[in-house]
Amino acid sequence: MTPSIFRRALMVLLTAAAVASLAACQREAQPEWRLNDVSGHLPDLDFKLTDDNGNPVTGADYKGKVAVMYFGYTHCPDVCPLTLTQLHVILDRLGPAAENVRILFVSVDPARDTPAVMHAYVNAFDKRAVGLVGSQAAVEALAKRYRSAFTREPDRGDGNYEVSHSSAIYFFDAEGKARLLATPSASQDDIVHDLHLLTSLETRS
Amino acid sequence: MMARSLALALILSIGGAAHAADKPAVEAKSGWVRVLPGNLPAGGYVTFENRSDRALSIVGAASPQYGNAMIHRSSTDGGMGRMEMVDSVPLPAKGSLAFAPGGYHVMLMQPKQAVKPGDKIVVTFTLSDGETIPATLLARPANASGPTD
């Protein structure tokens, strides 16, 4: 074996090793999600709404935080509190990483949910929750953007009514990219697992 | 003859009294209410145990502490969260039924006074046979997961 052939063989070996380690690297970069991966299938976080302190906000205001978005309304005594309670328990389990997460609770009941009502409501569940309100048109547009839907049910006769709404939970990374979708029946373990991954993506970038 | 039937009547009535002193056929336990801010409606949860061998149903609810109480059922079928009023909830013979988050609940509306965690809420449930079942529900914070931590 001449020195030049030896060098060439070494080069091929080194290149192969480099490619192999690059491939391993790429596999590591693809997290093993347990929830439904919707990357590339749903649009980035984008809206113009009013937060529960009465300030105008857009999706860009939550850049740098992992956003967990859920549609609901405050006159919902059962399913919305159940989901918000589960998210509260999940953030507590997440530990310090939860500081990089915001729950965005979007009202589908603009007629009754004012910023003040939303403020009291979301804070009764978790200090990391933000209540968002907007006009009927603004909330409808946001729901449509995420292929979600809501319907105001007929008045019960006493001025009270229910609002049926999609129960999906949407997860956006710190860049505002839609990443994951969960149903309220998803296991808390799976959501905690994926939020750990999502928040660690954020700190690497 | 007369004396004998009197004695029989006496025995029967004593038997009846003794029966009435037993535990009621239906018991409500582990009750709690999720308290929400302001005057928002609150969900009440409770577990019913039917010791009798008759299938019954729960047909109504009322609380002196709320202007209105209704039995509702939530569902998230097909990805849509919705709530419907129900007239009757089946309570199987020798079985139990739980009103629990995400399913059956008593919706308590128009609190007469502000309700705070730790308060005891009395809800009287009406059964299909006309019996009433008093239940004491513990008021819990909005983000509670059950009657205890």
UniProtKB/TrEMBL annotation, chain A:
Residue ranges annotated for the Thioredoxin domain, each copy included? 38-203
Question: Which PROSITE patterns does this entry report, sorted A to Z?
Answer: PROKAR_LIPOPROTEIN, THIOREDOXIN_2
UniProt keywords, alphabetically: Copper, Signal
Write down the SUPFAM superfamilies for this protein, in alphabetical order. Answer: Thioredoxin-like
Q: Does the keyword Signal apply?
A: yes
User: Superkingdom of the source?
Assistant: Bacteria
Gene3D superfamilies attached to this UniProt entry: Glutaredoxin
A Pfam family matched by this chain, by name?
SCO1-SenC
According to the record, the signal peptide region is: 1-23
InterPro entries per the record?
SCO1/SenC (IPR003782), Thioredoxin-like_sf (IPR036249), Thioredoxin_domain (IPR013766)
Q: Which family does it belong to?
A: Belongs to the SCO1/2 family.
**What is the protein name given in its UniProt record?**
SCO family protein
TrEMBL record, chain B:
**What Pfam families does the annotation carry?**
PCuAC (PF04314)
SUPFAM superfamilies registered for this protein in UniProt = DR1885-like metal-binding protein
Signal peptide coordinates:
1-20
Q: Does the keyword Signal apply?
A: yes
The UniProt keyword set, sorted, is: Signal
Give the InterPro entries listed for this entry.
LpqE-like, Lxx211020-like, PCuAC_sf
* Keyword field contains Signal: yes
Record's protein name? Copper chaperone PCu(A)C
Species of provenance: Luteibacter jiangsuensis
